[in-house]
Specification:
- This protein is an alpha+beta fold.
- Helices cover 34% and strands 24% of the residues.
- Strands 1-2-3 form a 3-stranded antiparallel sheet.
- A hairpin with a 4-residue loop joins strand 2 and strand 3.
- Helix 1 packs across helix 2.
- It is globular, with a radius of gyration of 13 Å.
Length: 68
Amino acid sequence: MTPTLADTAIPSPEVLFQEVGGETVVLDPASETYFGLDEVGTRIWHLLNEHGSLRTVYDAMLDEIDVA
């Protein structure tokens, strides 16, 4: 199933994350997998944690980032 802007995405409370210098390291202890997020990914991560709504994240990113 492909997500749409009408969907929500809420990060699992079991996933750990730590922001360092505007970037974030995300660790899933269950799978022992980690990801590094740049500044944009970090902003999206925070928006998902605050709102969960993909439409809200999309609209916020359009407002914050200069894209054509």
